[in-house]
Amino acid sequence: MRVLDTAALLYWPVTEITGGICSVSQLSELQKVSEQRHMLVSNLDINWQEPVAEWLENARTAAANSGDLPRLSSVDLDILALAMGLDLPLFTDDYRLQNTMQMAGLATHPVGTKGAKQVWQWELRCTGCGSTEAVPPDVESRKTGPVKDCASCGAPMVLKRKR
Ligand SMILES: [Zn+2]
Question: What residues sit around ligand 1, an ion, with C-beta below 5 angstroms?
Fold first, then answer.
């Protein structure tokens, strides 16, 4: 068993996601980034959980200890609380989550690599006109909502694996 962050829900094949443990709050996060993916994922056999208060408190304490707490979203904290509370490995590319988990002595694995060699690269792709651009450095707001609107046509831009 393993806890999956939202990047895994976005980019992993269905067979890999099935059976994973996720926080209920990830569903609305996913919906903001990709309606299509949200529809797909919400029909999969995923163990959606709501972390209990004690687990959340432990997660906040661990994140405060590592110094990462101010930059973690509430969804991040939910995921962290599940992984810590269930004592399961966390799959995430978020270095703050990785950092907190490692400081707490728990295992993390990257979402975006295969066999720890192939690194995935992301870009923003417009859902309207299809134009692409590099991910801007201030895009950590992906955790709390849509990435941004297309400068050309105004449609939402979503994170895609770079071709
Ligand atoms: Zn566009």
Answer: 126, 128-129, 150, 152-153, 155
- Separation of alpha carbons 102 and 95, rounded Å: 10
CATH number of the domain residue 100 falls in: 3.40.50.1010
Q: Which residues pair with 115 in a beta bridge?
A: none
Q: List pLDDT tens digits, range 43-72.
A: 999 999 999 999 999 999 988 888 888 788
Among 95, 112, 129, the domain boundary falls at 112
As given in the structure block, the two tokens for residue 147 are 């990435």
- Structure confidence by residue, pLDDT tens digits, 89-147: 999 988 889 989 988 899 999 888 443 444 456 678 898 999 998 776 555 544 555 67
Q: From CA 47, how far away is CA 75, in angstroms rounded?
A: 16
Total number of domains constituting the chain: 2
What amino acid is encoded at 157 in this protein? M
The strand pair at 156-161 and 148-149 is best described as: antiparallel
Range of the domain at 128: 121-161
Distance 145 CA to ligand 1 centre (A): 18
Same domain, 35 and 92: yes
